[in-house]
């Protein structure tokens, strides 16, 4: 149990924080601050789960566990890159799959869906793809929900 996070004591509490962060970004999908909160919470949940559920018996290092999870959820890799890229300014320990992020200024307002040219936070991948942050964080939350439901 974590003793340094106020009422957030366990992984399930940290996951609830992630869902609350997601609600914030859903209400304001152009907020970089909300996006970074989501990415950091989603990524650091790996640390919480590793320690709480004693994955040390299966994975000697946290980084081994994290690599295993990223293979199960491509979007978690994106959260890793955004989280550490914003925390450290420059990534030197791993080569990110995200090449850059930006705020896309669309011609339609948010009363339209994403099939129109609406504003939003975009992720450019090294392989040339452009993704929407809101979609990738939602995929990450779905992954975490399924994963956490398998824990005892």
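Sequence proposed for the structure above (152 residues):
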């Amino acid at each position: 149990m974590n003793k340094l996070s106020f009422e957030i004591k366990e992984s399930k509490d940290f996951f609830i924080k992630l869902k609350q962060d997601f609600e914030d970004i859903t209400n304001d999908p152009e907020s970089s601050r909300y996006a970074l909160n989501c990415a950091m919470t989603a990524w650091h949940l790996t640390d919480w789960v590793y320690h709480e559920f004693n994955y040390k018996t299966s994975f000697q290092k946290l980084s081994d566990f994290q690599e295993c999870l990223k293979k199960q959820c491509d979007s978690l890799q994106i959260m890793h890159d955004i989280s550490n890229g914003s925390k450290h300014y420059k990534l030197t320990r791993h080569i990110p799959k995200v090449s850059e992020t930006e705020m896309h200024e669309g011609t339609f307002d948010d009363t339209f869906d994403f099939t129109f040219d609406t504003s939003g936070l975009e992720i450019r991948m090294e392989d040339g793809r452009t993704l929407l942050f809101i979609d990738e964080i939602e995929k990450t939350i779905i992954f975490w929900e399924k994963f956490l439901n398998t824990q005892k």
